């Protein structure tokens, strides 16, 4: 598939795919077309058995500086309802394979929300995260009030959402929003390294484990434990489980096939 607003490398490393946002002049502002391309690329990569982890990145200056305001300015509530831009975000959320955001520069508004749709986040020292929608008379709409609150707590999320304040990569790390901060020249390399550590494991177990972790946000503890247990049992229907345990007993490296 050909893309206009993103670049896709389905094999930047063994079993690892890369999606790079490619609107540099607009600081990778998330217009409808770019989001549609991300959705389609993720569908293809999610169905590709050779891909076991997916990295989403921008460039050194900006991961994504927000939504494309020009596409929303002048719209009515009914216009926005009919455009239904969030259906694309809902599809991205359904990606089964691990998503890693490699962030440098601005990750604001929809850009911050896109990083939070990923499962792990590696940031450069220059990264800044924020939900500044309040400054233009609106509020986050792609999960910013919900995912941010669950990630960093009510008080910090309220401050960011109600004032539009940005936080640095180091502050995001301390708050629990991201996994690691590295020098700007290493942020993509570090994301690939993290993806490698996941991609060498059983794709079946990884997918089931990701599903269970995400379920914890929508369930009670008892419901979550029940869901976890069912996915644990499902692992025993895979060849990877047999291979993994046999390799452990035989003191050798397992050769997982995703079956």
Short description:
The chain has 259 residues and is an alpha/beta fold.
Overview of this protein structure:
The chain has helices at 32-46, 69-72, 77-83, 86-93, 110-117, 144-152, 154-163, 169-175, 187-199, 203-215, 221-235, 239-249; strands at 6-13, 16-21, 53-57, 62-64, 99-103, 106-108, 120-124, 128-130, 166-168, 180-182. With 259 residues, the chain is α/β, with parallel strands linked by helices. It folds into two domains: 6-199, 2-enoyl-CoA Hydratase, Chain A, domain 1, CATH 3.90.226.10; 203-249, Orthogonal Bundle (Lyase 2-enoyl-coa Hydratase, Chain  A, domain 2), CATH 1.10.12.10. A hairpin with a 2-residue loop joins β1 and β2 (16-21).
- Strand percentage lies at 15-25%
Average of per-residue pLDDT values: 94
The CATH class label of the largest domain is Alpha Beta
Total number of domains: 2
**Unreliable segments of 5+ consecutive residues:** none
Would you tell me the structural class of the helices and strands?
alpha/beta
- Count of individual beta strands: 10
Summed up, the helix count is 12
Write down the overall geometry.
Answer: globular
Estimate the helix proportion, in percent: 40-55%
> In order across it, which strands form the biggest sheet?
1-2-3-5-7-10
Oligomer: single chain
CATH superfamily membership of the largest domain, which one?
Answer: 2-enoyl-CoA Hydratase, Chain A, domain 1
Intertermini distance: 27 Å
Largest sheet, strands/sense/barrel? 6 strands, mixed
Please tell me how large the radius of gyration is: 19 Å
CATH architecture of the largest domain: Alpha-Beta Complex
Q: What name is given to the CATH topology of the largest domain? A: 2-enoyl-CoA Hydratase, Chain A, domain 1
| Secondary-structure element series | EEHEEHHHEEHEEHHEHEHHHH
């Amino acid at each position: 598939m050909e893309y206009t607003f993103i670049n896709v490398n389905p094999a930047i490393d063994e079993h690892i795919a890369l999606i790079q946002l490619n609107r540099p002049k607009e600081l990778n502002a998330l217009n409808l077309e770019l989001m549609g391309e991300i959705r389609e690329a993720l569908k293809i990569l999610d169905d590709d058995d050779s891909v076991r982890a997916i990295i989403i990145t921008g460039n050194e200056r900006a991961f994504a500086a927000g939504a494309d305001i020009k596409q929303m300015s002048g719209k009515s509530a009914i216009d926005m309802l009919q455009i239904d831009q969030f259906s694309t975000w809902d599809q991205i959320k359904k990606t089964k394979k691990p998503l890693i955001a490699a962030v440098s520069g601005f990750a604001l508004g929809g850009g911050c929300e896109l990083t939070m749709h990923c499962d792990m986040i590696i940031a450069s020292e220059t990264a800044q995260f924020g939900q500044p929608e309040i400054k233009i008379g609106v509020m986050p709409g792609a999960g910013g009030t919900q995912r941010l609150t669950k990630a960093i707590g009510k008080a910090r999320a309220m401050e960011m959402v109600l004032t539009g304040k940005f936080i640095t990569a180091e502050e995001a790390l301390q708050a629990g929003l991201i996994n690691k901060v590295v020098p700007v020249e290493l942020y993509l390399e570090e994301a690939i390294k993290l993806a490698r550590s996941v991609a060498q494991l059983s794709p079946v177990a990884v997918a089931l484990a990701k599903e269970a972790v995400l379920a914890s946000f929508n369930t009670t503890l008892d419901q979550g434990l029940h869901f976890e247990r069912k996915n644990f049992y499902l692992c025993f229907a895979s060849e990877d489980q047999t291979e993994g345990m046999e390799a452990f007993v035989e003191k050798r490296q397992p050769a997982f096939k995703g079956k």
